[in-house]
């Protein structure tokens, strides 16, 4: 981040009601209010589910997801960055675009299948709008590939993306693999104009 943009980021953080709420509640990140709103709307994570979470650090979604699935469910949380341990969660530090991740996925997760893949990932931003947009769509395509490797028939996928170059093509790809594809814009996501979540339901296994 440049000096100017980090000053703007700090000023926005100070005013943001979700940052204040997160500090008051002691949750790991303001991002938790996005998944909570999506969960209220769609009840997408149910008791007993097996969930694969990509880009999970610092883990505010993971803490809630682990509670929603309960002891009879299982959460696999993956990030390039390390994460503090969470009860009933298997945390793994890997880049989801790496060979090691593909091996881990086949060995640990894919055999028994996953009910829902969730991703709040965004690539490191370079500051160049078009490059960042294309990197983001590339990451989303990688998430879709992961989902097709491990989702059970009729499973679901929830992922963050950004509207712009490549977005329509991504949605078109998802429509080939899932029965329904919806766009969700949680209130906590409003400060980023193009950020949106895609909720794809009913994986059509080939
Ligand atoms: N949902 C999280 C929470 O509530 O705490 C916040 C996730 S944060 C917005 C996005 C995360 O995606 C970062 O921790 C980043 O390290 C991770 N990430 C980005 N690219 C990744 C990749 N290729 N493989 C694994 N993790 C990645």
Report on this model:
This protein has 206 residues and is an alpha/beta fold. It is built from seven helices and seven strands. Helix 6 runs parallel beside helix 7. It is globular and about 50 Å long. The chain starts with a helix and ends with a strand. It binds S-adenosylmethionine. S-adenosylmethionine binds next to helix 4 and strand 2.
Shape: globular
Order of helices and strands: HHHEHEEHEHEHEE
Query: Strand portion, in percent?
Result: 15-25%
Task: Briefly note the structural class of the backbone.
Answer: alpha/beta
Spatial gap, N to C terminus: 43 Å
Which residue ranges are poorly predicted, with pLDDT under 50 across at least 5 consecutive positions? none
Calculate Rg over CA atoms: 17 Å
Strand order of the largest sheet: 3-2-1-4-5-7-6
What's the pLDDT, averaged over the residues?
Answer: 92
Ligand species? S-adenosylmethionine
| Count of strand segments | 7
**Total of helices:** 7
Could you describe the largest sheet, including whether it forms a barrel? 7 strands, mixed
Considering DSSP H and I runs of 4 or more, what fraction of the residues is helical? Answer: 40-55%
């Amino acid at each position: 981040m440049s000096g100017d943009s980090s000053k703007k980021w700090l000023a926005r953080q100070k005013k943001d009601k979700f940052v204040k709420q997160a500090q008051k509640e002691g949750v790991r990140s303001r991002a938790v209010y996005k998944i909570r709103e999506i969960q209220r709307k769609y009840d997408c994570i149910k008791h007993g589910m097996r969930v694969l979470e990509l880009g999970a650090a610092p883990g505010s979604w993971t803490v809630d997801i682990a509670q929603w699935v309960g002891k009879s469910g299982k959460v696999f949380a993956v990030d390039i960055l390390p994460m503090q341990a969470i009860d009933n969660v298997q945390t793994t530090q890997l880049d989801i675009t790496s060979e090691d991740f593909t091996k881990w996925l086949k060995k640990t997760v894919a055999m028994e299948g996953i009910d829902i893949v969730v991703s709040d990932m965004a690539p490191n931003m370079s500051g160049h709008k078009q490059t960042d947009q294309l990197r983001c769509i590339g990451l989303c395509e990688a998430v879709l590939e992961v989902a097709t490797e491990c989702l059970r028939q009729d499973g679901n996928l929830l992922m963050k993306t950004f509207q712009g170059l490549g977005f329509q093509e991504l949605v078109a790809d998802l429509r080939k693999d899932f029965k329904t594809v919806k766009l969700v814009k949680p209130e906590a996501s409003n400060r980023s104009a193009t950020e949106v979540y895609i909720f794809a339901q009913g994986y059509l296994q080939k």
